[in-house]
Design brief:
Two copies of one chain form a homodimer.
Chain A lengths: L10 H12 L4 E4 L4 E4 L8 E8 L16 E7 L5 H11 L5 E6 L2 H13 L3 E6 L19 H14 L4 H13 L1 E7 L19 E4 L10 E4 L3 H16 L5 E9 L5 H17 L2 E9 L9 E9 L1 H8 L2 E2 L4 E2 L2
Parallel strand pairs in A: 3-4, 3-5, 5-6, 10-11
Antiparallel strand pairs in A: 1-2, 2-4, 7-8, 7-12, 8-9, 10-12, 13-14
């Protein structure tokens, strides 16, 4: 294992210390290293809280700040955060209007956020499940919540900043999740520091098609294909799943898993954009970069989110976080 | 070689097409794929132009836009752009106040930018050479220009936006370059698409200490050390080179080479920040991310740039590019 670390036991806390020091104008750590919280809370605003296993950075801590999350709870790598993390975060960032938990659909995450919701008051939840690759998987019953979670956090975060109520934000989150679909492909495995070896073996000419963000299996192992062929199959899967909704305006988000350079991500964006446009979608918003990662895994996912006038406007609303920033 | 591409011959043009489509509000391609230009030029502003071999994205195309570059000329991967690219870019983005070329100190780049400067009128140049690792290297006489180039482009770009003249911007660029030092370490090699195999061989427990951004050799091949030990040696090299200037306020920039996850970059930032603070530097600006890359190479560089009140203010000035954006 080749990593820039001091000890596998302190990777997460040392990284969080650096993160908090680098972005002290935006955020702070809470409860030791239990959560990352927005530095300036906005009284009367519904608090948005997310979290999950670490290793997907900048998701979720990189999205704490104005216009997105109020707190993020990091578990150990590929391990759900514990309920006390969310309970303490909610107690600290709830300014009286309640909290919305945004949870990726993984069994551990769902269970622990549920327990935290029961132990607190004034909590509602949105569970994201945008991955069309497989119905059930290693860590999940039903579809996995993957890169589309960023889209939910951005759009609901903008609406929360405008002062909307908890039930309305929950409904908006569910609506964005239902309009958002993703699928990914891995060319190499990630290596979890505590494990010290690759999560899965993969041949020199193979790809894992439909991979999850923990390196868990997808639809099939296949020979590595061209970018156009990969994009074609992913876009067809997404479009087929969305069915009649594939028209009008959309956000196209090409997400790197960590080990793939920006040059390849833009090349995949170029392929995917043409394919969706041929199917009658107009790409009005774009995001290309490594935002929902799997440590050092090479590969990418493609996310399409169908937008209406309101969600397109909310996507553009000002945001000031470590990883996404515009309009301020 | 495992890459998301269609053909090694079309990697660059397809990637540039995707890049231009994703950021059409900020930039456009010029002369086919000869340069990336800012969409809206500002009459009377000195035009800033940079460029170099591709594979270091987002450098330089990702820095085209308000408050940074007016044009960037991409060569093939690890290959300098040709003089006609810079000549055409200058002709298109010069609105009458002249052009400043910002050039990383590599022999091919320096030669081709020099030729372009001779073929055009009203050109001045800043050559960056922030890498303290080695005095001469595979592609370079003297020090290499590496991640510190971003700092020069940001600060000079902000000053150009304020309407300063060509000679003043050239002097500012030279001043920022002289206050900026970098050094990097690689854990794995990059793989250039046209070569199809790793640029260099490296053992499972080795690192290349002082590596260049093309994967060219650094100070020595060594056993992989802890993050703190690596940071300590890099910070000592930077501080030793800056000498008496290591005090007061500074920007600390931890740059990923492409294959290293954000978790490790923030951990390195944490180590480096403490080390510089012990030496009497106050870190007042921070940047952590993969901005000056070497395709999929794992590793990072550390850059320290000593700031005065003016350069600290210019770093914070509004910028709107694909890769750096704040204040607007």
């Amino acid at each position: 294992m080749k990593k820039l670390i001091n000890s596998v036991d302190t990777v997460l806390t040392e990284s969080l210390d650096g993160f908090a020091a680098a972005h002290a104008d935006i955020l702070a750590l809470g409860g030791g290293h239990k959560f990352i919280r927005r530095r300036s809370l906005k009284p009367g605003k519904v608090a948005l809280i997310s979290g999950g296993g670490s290793g997907h950075e900048p998701l979720h801590g990189g999205f704490v700040g104005h216009g997105m999350l109020d707190a993020a709870c990091p578990g150990q790598v590929s391990t759900s955060p514990t309920p006390d993390q969310m309970v303490e975060a909610a107690a600290e960032v709830d300014t009286g209007a309640g909290c919305l938990f945004i949870v990726k659909n993984y069994e551990g995450d769902v269970m622990n956020f549920d327990m935290a919701a029961e132990m607190s008051e004034g909590i509602m939840q949105v569970v994201t499940n945008d991955d069309v690759a497989v119905e059930d998987s290693l860590y999940t019953t039903g579809r996995r919540g993957v890169a589309g979670t960023l889209v939910v956090e951005k759009i609901v975060g903008a609406a929360a900043e405008e002062g909307r109520g908890l039930a309305e934000l929950k409904a908006l989150g569910d609506r964005v999740n239902a309009a958002t679909r993703s699928m990914g492909v891995a060319l190499t495995s990630c290596t979890v520091p505590a494990a010290g070896r690759p999560t899965f073996d993969i041949g020199d000419n193979e790809m894992e098609f439909g991979v999850g963000i923990h390196g868990e299996p997808g639809r099939r192992r296949d020979a590595l294909k061209s970018a156009d062929e990969i994009a074609d199959e992913i876009c067809a899967a997404i479009a087929g799943d969305l069915g009649m909704r594939v028209n009008g305006n959309a956000l196209l988000f090409v997400n790197g898993f960590g080990g793939t350079p920006s040059m390849e991500l833009y090349l995949m964006y170029n392929s995917a954009r043409k394919l969706f446009e041929k199917r009658g979608v107009t790409i009005v918003r774009s995001l290309v970069g490594s935002y929902v990662t799997s440590l050092d895994m090479a590969g990418c996912s493609i996310t399409l989110s169908i937008l209406d006038d309101e969600t397109a406007r909310l996507w553009n609303a000002p945001v000031h976080t470590a990883a996404l920033r515009w309009g301020m």
